[in-house]
Write a sequence for this structure.
């Protein structure tokens, strides 16, 4: 199951050239960028791991792409996304977020039912990726 | 500048624009005009006195990049040239100024994409404890990408007396980036000639990756006088005739003093003359009204109060220590 979240998520995966162009667009807007990765792509999982400190003073897309590629070398079989932050409203608010790397096999999600008191049922979205212990999820 | 969708590398990508036909002939002059490189070269001639060999080399680099661009348009094989440079010369000979210009020139010739200059020294690259250096160096490199990384007093990176010095780690990362990210940034190493020589000797990797070694000669007294004229004009001051005479006498005297730092010493001398001029005007307040001309003119007396005129041929009493870099 192909995870779709963030900007461009319904397009085919971006090539490096396209990623670079998007990053350059963000930089030209004066936005800061960072790179994050995770093995649990649950839509409510907003806390992805940071790959490096956010890049505030970079001017060129090559620098951000360099970090993306470094991250791919280590976590090539995980989800990696690039976020950009706009500080023009007095706080760093996210302006763009797109996935630049995904695992070869994406386990996807299932619906789990929890039986509650009485005959009540609660549904939740379950990320199959989390069935294996952390770190072993995408090996 | 990389616009969206027109990034410079040729990657397999279905959305590429259709190939343009190969032109049969090219007008190099037209290309030259379009890059507006002449205005930078003119500015270089106007604002930098002397440095004939340096200007020559910049012209050569500009010509090479222009021809390279033409070759690319003709679909001829072009290897992106290595443009890492080393600037060697005594203090105050214009290394930083030229580096700034270089960033501009390379940007106009589309060799670097953004054309900014990041000026760093050892402190910005080398960390204080184990594991600190690599992220610090990478941070600087990322900032400089798309522009020029200017490493001032680069020989400090290598400290042979301490084999566990973290500078070596920084050097290794730099070497790697200079090789792998050649089209992303240009590294300029600057420093005093003899110390750079030992630096290159002990780091042969650097020597082979640096294609252009530019030597900045010391200025002659005449050139320094011209520089002084430029500096004064730039700050909207005028030298009176007596000040010009005094300055002409001052320069050779100052050149014989220790810690002489070429143009930087001259700038300090002018700064002190400005100080004395202000003092002179302030002392004479209430007597006459000041004109615009009074505010602009540096008089001979403003220079002659310098200690250099008091002690002819004396050494060690130099008023300034030009070797401190700012």
């Amino acid at each position: 199951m192909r995870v779709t979240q963030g900007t461009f998520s319904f397009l085919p995966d971006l090539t490096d050239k396209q990623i670079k162009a998007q990053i350059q667009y963000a930089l030209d807007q004066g936005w800061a960028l960072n790179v994050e990765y995770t093995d649990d792509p649950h839509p409510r999982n907003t806390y992805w791991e940071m790959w490096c400190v956010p890049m505030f003073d970079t001017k060129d897309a090559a620098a951000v792409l360099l970090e993306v590629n470094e991250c791919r070398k280590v976590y090539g079989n995980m989800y990696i996304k690039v976020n950009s932050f706009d500080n023009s409203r007095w706080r760093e608010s996210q302006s763009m977020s797109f996935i630049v790397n995904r695992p070869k096999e994406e386990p996807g999600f299932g619906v789990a039912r929890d039986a509650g008191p009485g005959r009540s049922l609660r549904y939740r979205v379950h990320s199959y990726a989390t069935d294996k212990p952390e770190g072993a999820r995408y090996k | 500048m990389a616009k969206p969708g027109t990034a410079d590398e040729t990657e397999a990508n279905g959305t590429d624009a259709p190939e343009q036909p190969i032109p049969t002939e090219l007008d190099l002059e037209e290309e030259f005009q379009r890059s507006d490189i002449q205005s930078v070269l003119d500015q270089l001639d106007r604002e930098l006195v002397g440095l004939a060999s340096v200007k020559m080399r910049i012209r050569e680099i500009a010509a090479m990049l222009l021809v390279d661009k033409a070759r690319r348009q003709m679909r001829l094989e072009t290897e992106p040239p290595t443009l890492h440079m080393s600037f060697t010369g005594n203090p105050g000979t214009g290394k930083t100024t030229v580096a700034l210009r270089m960033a501009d020139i390379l940007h106009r010739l589309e060799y670097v994409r953004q054309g900014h200059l990041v000026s760093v020294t050892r402190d910005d690259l080398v960390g204080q404890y184990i594991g600190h250096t690599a992220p610090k160096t990478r941070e600087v490199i990322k900032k400089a990408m798309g522009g020029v990384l200017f490493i001032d007093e680069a020989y400090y990176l290598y400290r042979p007396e301490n084999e566990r010095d973290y500078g070596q780690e920084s050097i290794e990362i730099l070497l790697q980036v200079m090789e792998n990210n050649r089209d992303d940034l240009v590294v300029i190493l600057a420093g005093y000639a003899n110390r750079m020589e030992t630096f290159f000797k002990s780091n042969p990797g650097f020597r082979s990756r640096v294609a252009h070694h530019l030597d900045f000669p010391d200025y002659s007294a005449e050139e320094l006088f011209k520089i002084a004229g430029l500096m004064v004009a730039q700050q909207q001051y005028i030298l009176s005739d007596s000040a010009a005479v005094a300055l002409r006498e001052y320069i050779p005297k100052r050149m014989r003093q220790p810690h002489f730092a070429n143009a930087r010493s001259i700038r300090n001398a002018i700064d002190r003359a400005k100080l004395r001029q202000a003092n002179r005007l302030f002392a004479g307040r209430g007597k006459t009204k000041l004109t615009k001309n009074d505010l602009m003119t540096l008089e001979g007396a403003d220079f002659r109060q310098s200690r250099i005129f008091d002690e002819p041929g004396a050494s060690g009493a130099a008023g300034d220590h030009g070797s401190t870099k700012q």
DSSP finds 15 helices and seven strands in chain B.
